[in-house]
Amino acid sequence: MLQGLNHISLFNIIRCGPAIVRLLLFFTLILFGYFTLTSAIIAHSVAIFAVVFVGARMLMSVVPLEHSNKIPMKKAASFGLVALVSQLIGSLNLRFDFYIADFFCGSEGLGQYSVAVASASILWQIPAAIASVLIPKLASSDASSAANITLATIRAYIILVVPIMLLSFVFGPKLIDIAYGTEFSTASNLFLVLLPGCAFFGVVSLTTSYFAASLKKPVVNTCLAGFSLVLNIILNMILIPIVGLTGVAWACTISYLVSTVVALFIFIRLSGLSRLVLLVPRMDDFVSLYKVFLKISHHTHDDSNE
Predict the structure, then answer these.
(1) Coil, helix or strand for 147?
(2) d(Cα 304, Cα 265) in Å, to the nearest integer?
(3) Tens of pLDDT along 156-211?
């Protein structure tokens, strides 16, 4: 709700809160020599409940209780339930390949694959940050404006992610070797396989925001997440017997790319935009990005002078 009301600062505090509180509790436990598996689980639970409590207080300060009674709870609960199912399926889709890697390739294969995924999925931070700001904008815009905003955002993301992906192809494996050692050379190769899927799968984060915030159809995201998960399972069953651990990476990246194409196709159909060619970046997109970078640099310069 904080995100939908455009209280991004409060939203970010709640998002970062559990990690910060958990880190402080872990540090305290280590300092006093009480850090065990049980105490770590308890600390994790305490961090979650503490942030939930603080978040509820923040929400009450933004939306007073008398106004919350005007919210159609049945409709909100139905929307939230569908969105929750979508997130659960999406989380399973993002973690399923870990279980497959462990089952077929053992702990060593899982370790290699985990390093590759952790490195390639860094690119997801870009669309995640964009989506957190995009949602309130889409929720407050009419259908036509929301579609055009989403489209422009997708084109801007493509402009940003393509050169980053190409640089990652060149320097990523070398950085993995430096960070983890030559023992993780397999992870470097898996990273190259995963990179295209992880890079372009970020587009799905942007279309997800449009389907949920503008169209109020989180069921579309649920169906997309289910489709991606089923496709991932089928591809793993086909490719693992052929190429082993590399097959897990190929199954993941292919399912991500196919899901991205499907999400874009559905976006075009539901938004009323008629041509996929509209997704190709244009010169004014580069100009707009350049203006954004100039504005950011000016703000940074002004803050440094204060």
Answers:
(1) helix
(2) 44
(3) 888 889 999 999 999 999 999 999 998 999 999 999 999 999 999 999 988 988 99
In angstroms, the CA 144 to CA 282 distance is 20
| Residue in 189, 138, 134 with CA at minimum distance from that of residue 157 | 134
Structure-token match 């990476």, residue found: 249
- Terminal Cα-to-Cα distance of the chain (whole angstroms): 34
Question: Dihedral, CA atoms, 263, 255, 176, 203, nearest 10 degrees?
Answer: 0
**What is the per-residue pLDDT across 213-271, written as a single tens digit (0 to 9) for each?**
888 888 898 899 899 999 999 999 999 999 999 999 999 999 999 999 999 999 988 88
Residue 157 tokens read as 């993301």
pLDDT exceeds cutoff 50 at 66: no
Per-domain boundaries in the chain: 1-71, 74-305
